[in-house]
Write a structure and sequence with these properties.
globular, single chain, transmembrane, mainly alpha, Hydantoin permease
């Protein structure tokens, strides 16, 4: 028998869960380096504008569809579609979304495992177990598969407890812990020599680049991907929202928390890079550009920490603890997408669905690790560069064009009876119809054309 559907019991719990889904590794390591490579504060300003002009409306499309159906993405798109081709296309979109979410988790679990390993390596160094620390930070199949499996077990354990006892409870714990850790790290790094150079790069705008097509497209992509859109994670979380809640307000709160953490991460990563540069660690390539994000996290920052003595060990542990939390809060939403579908469509119990699907994803991760050079980058490109924008496009089309306008209005009135008189209703319906799809297609075209 299928498990009963859960529901978030508090506004705080939902915002923490949804923001946790959005705030992942990309926000903390990707956004700051993108900003530094694209005009510093000019990129930051454009990103802030686009986050509310693209990411928020697209987020609202998923939240509204989810709460209206109180079901998974497949059922939600089926419910609002007329019979025939549009219904079949909606169901296909939902199914592809849960497959893509599972594939994203399959490579995400590998990277998250690395974060846990580096976190434990700092503890090993602290107690003098240098050989263990070296193994934990060395790339190898045994280490990679062990910590991938550990991360998947953590994710599965949370999801198996359901919405209230699992997702909501742990989001309420993990997100505040992540924020406190991030603030503490920022406060410490800013006291180090060289940090001011990173702040200048981050905060002093290069306005000549502010309107360049490359910067705008990069900021569009950062804004879209920062909210974990396109694969149904926000739709399934929306399906657990009470009908009493004001959806536009909740969506705005999630967007604000996500953006705030991404911006705050810039005050950590950019100064830390220039502290490393001050300490003799290379942060630029031979062409003068900043190094890539993966090299930053797993090479530059560990080299920086090694120059700081015992304080560096503590900072290293704290930093990778932060990254591990960010990964976990995102992974639980990714796993919930296929789990919710399996429970609702096939009548499977939650615990069985979680362990079976989690096991399949872990097996997929193992296959990727066994063929790392060929598959790792391919899976990332297929899911995040190509599939995610197209799925986000489809969600906007169904919310803007297929969803009956009167039914949509009634859904929004549930938590806000006067929504029709507000600015949201005057702008959002046509905006999600016309503007959001065009912007998402621009992101996809840029991906294709390079």
């Amino acid at each position: 028998m299928a498990s009963p559907r859960g529901e978030f019991t508090s506004r705080f719990g939902f915002v923490m869960a949804a923001a946790g889904s959005a705030v992942g590794l990309g926000n903390i390591w990707g956004f700051p380096t993108q900003a530094a490579s694209n005009g510093g504060a000019a990129f930051l300003l454009v990103y802030l504008a686009l986050a509310f002009s693209l990411a928020y409306p697209a987020l609202m499309a998923e939240l509204i569809l989810g709460r209206h159906a109180h079901a998974n993405a497949v059922n939600a798109l089926r419910l609002i579609s007329p019979a025939g081709l549009l219904r079949r296309l909606g169901v296909t979109t939902g199914v592809v979304g849960l497959i893509v979410a599972s594939l994203i988790l399959s490579f995400y679990a590998i990277v998250a495992g690395w974060m846990i390993a580096f976190c434990l390596a700092a503890l090993a160094s602290l107690v003098g177990m240098e050989s263990l620390a070296q193994w934990l930070t060395s790339f190898g199949f045994a280490r990679n598969v062990s910590f991938m499996l550990l991360f998947m077990v953590l994710t599965i354990s949370i999801i198996s407890e359901g919405v209230r006892a699992g997702i909501e409870r742990w989001s309420e714990r993990l997100m505040p812990a992540m924020l406190i850790t991030l603030v503490a790290l920022v406060g410490y790094v800013l006291t180090l020599d060289g940090a001011s150079d990173g702040l200048k790069v981050y905060l002093l705008p290069d306005f000549e680049r502010a309107l360049s097509p490359k910067l705008i497209i990069a900021a569009l992509g950062a804004a879209f991907f920062s909210l974990s859109l396109g694969v149904g994670t926000m739709l399934i979380y929306g399906s657990y929202i009470s009908d009493r809640e004001n959806l536009p307000l909740l969506g705005g709160m999630v967007t604000l928390v996500d953006i705030s953490i991404a911006v705050l991460a810039g005050f950590l990563v950019l100064p830390a890079m220039y502290v490393a540069h001050h300490n003799g660690v290379q942060i630029f390539t031979e062409t003068g550009t900043l190094i890539s994000e993966d090299t930053l996290i797993f090479t530059v920052l560990p080299e920086l920490f090694s120059t700081m003595g015992i304080a560096g060990v503590v900072v290293s542990f704290t930093f990778f603890f932060l990254m591990s939390i960010a990964a976990l809060t995102s992974s639980i939403s990714m796993l919930e997408v296929p789990v919710a579908y399996t429970i609702e469509e096939h009548g499977v119990s939650r615990k069985k669905a979680v362990w079976v699907i989690g096991g399949i994803i872990a097996a997929t991760s193992t296959v990727i690790l066994l063929n790392f050079a060929e598959l790792f980058g391919l899976v990332i490109a297929f899911t995040t560069r190509y599939s995610q924008p197209l799925l986000g496009f489809m969600f906007c089309i169904y919310a803007g064009w297929i969803f009956n306008r009167n039914t949509l209005l009634q859904e929004l009135r549930k938590g806000n009876p006067d929504v029709e008189q507000g600015l949201f209703w005057k702008i959002w319906p046509w905006y999600v119809r016309l503007v959001c799809p065009l912007i998402i297609l621009a992101i996809f075209a840029q991906t294709l054309l390079g």
